[in-house]
Every structure is written in C-alpha cells, then in structure tokens.
C-alpha cells in the first residue's frame, strides 16, 4: 500500500454543521465561502474569468468505514458499487463539487451552495471549462434502471426540497 501526503490549502465555510445536501444546490440559502490560505492568494489570479469551479476537499468527519457496495439514501433497496456512486464514504474520502463563483475578495471565493460541512478542509480548486468539462453524450448510468420519474429522482439526488 502506498501512502501519500496531502495538505489542506484552506477551508470551506458553509452553514452546515453536521448535515448537508447530497449535492450542491445552486440557489441554496446562506453564505458559502472558500477561504484559501493567504500564501496561495496569488494563485487566484484570473480565476474570476470562469463562471464555475471544481472544489476538491477532504470529507473529514466520516463515522462509517467504506463498504464496496452502497445503497444511496434516496433509493433504499438499490445496491450499487461504491465507485458507481457518489457516496462520501470511500477508501480515500475525497469530495468534488462544481459551484458557481459569485465573487472573489482577496483570498476568499464566495460561491453558490456547497454540499459540505462547515470547515471542511480544502484540497484544490480548478476551473470548470466549457467543452473540456462537459460531455454531450453523458448518461445516467444505473439511474436509468430505477423505476421512478427521472426529474423527481434528480430532486432527491440533489437534495432540493420539493412537493411529493
Ligand atoms: C454525497 S457527498 C457528495 C460530495 C461531492 N459532491 C461528490 O460528489 O464527491 C455529500 C455528503 O457528504 C457529507 N459530508 C459533507 N462534508 C462532510 C465532512 N466534512 N465530513 C463528513 N461528511 C461530510 C454530507 O452528508 C453530504 O450530504
């Protein structure tokens, strides 16, 4: 087993203490802020020319050990491979979220909603680039086999409150 050392380059501030949406909600209420360690501030130059970024972080407060098959919370009874899921409980608990930049002030990036607990350690930020990062023929994988309305299912997956 090879181990690597990663360091946190900042923290993610959100209104969520120990309960967060399953995926980022674009119009989520509250303040979402990425606070980069000041020694990296110069690295933010030109980032505000992009509309979206990838935020990569350590999911640091897990209470369970990973299992190689999972049952997503919004579809109990369905069993899929861990790596065919977005479960946070993984051998390397690394999370990735795509969010919209609202503004950048010094070492802080204010964003649309994030699906992480307050003070989650930040590992990296990358620009989300049109065409490079979107595939026209992307599909829904095993989600297509579920016996439910796709639009309704996506509201569950994204954690968007809705009427049943
Ligand atoms: C399903 S994961 C998805 C993360 C990311 N968007 C992805 O796809 O890699 C999001 C969940 O991780 C959990 N979570 C978020 N931040 C966490 C942290 N710092 N420690 C432990 N669990 C966390 C919350 O339960 C949240 O609903």
What's the alpha carbon Rg, rounded to whole Å?
17 Å
CATH H-level superfamily? YaeB-like
Low-confidence stretches: none
**CATH A-level architecture:** Beta Barrel
Q: State the strand order across the main sheet.
A: 1-2-7-6-3-8
Strand content bin: 25-35%
List bound small molecules: S-adenosylmethionine
| Mean pLDDT figure | 93
- Overall shape: it is globular
User: What is the CATH topology classification name?
Assistant: Elongation Factor Tu (Ef-tu), domain 3
Under CATH at level 1, the class stands as: Mainly Beta
The helix/strand order is EEEEEEEEH
Number of domains: 1
Q: Compute the number of strand runs.
A: 8
Provide a quick synopsis of the model.
The protein is mostly beta strands.
Description:
The chain is built from one helix and eight strands; from the N terminus they run ββββββββα. By secondary structure, the chain is mainly beta. The strands form two sheets. Strands 1-2-7-6-3-8 form a six-stranded antiparallel beta barrel. It has a two-stranded antiparallel sheet with strand order 4-5. A hairpin with a 2-residue loop joins strand 6 and strand 7. The structure holds S-adenosylmethionine.
């Amino acid at each position: 087993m090879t181990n690597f050392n990663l360091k946190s380059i900042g923290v993610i501030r959100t209104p969520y203490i120990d309960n967060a949406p399953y995926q980022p909600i674009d119009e989520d209420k509250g303040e979402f802020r990425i606070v980069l360690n000041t020694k990296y501030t110069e690295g933010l130059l030109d980032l505000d020319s992009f509309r979206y970024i990838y935020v990569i972080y350590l999911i640091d407060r897990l209470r369970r050990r990973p299992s190689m098959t999972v049952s997503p919370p919004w579809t109990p009874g369905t069993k899929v491979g861990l790596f065919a899921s977005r479960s946070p409980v993984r051998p390397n608990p690394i999370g990735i979220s795509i969010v919209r930049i609202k503004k950048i002030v010094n070492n802080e990036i204010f964003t649309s909603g994030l699906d992480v607990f307050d003070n989650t350690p930040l590992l990296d930020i990358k620009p989300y680039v049109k065409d490079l990062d979107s595939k026209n023929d992307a599909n829904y994988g095993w989600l297509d086999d579920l016996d439910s309305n796709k639009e309704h299912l996506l509201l569950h997956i994204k954690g968007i409150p809705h009427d049943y």
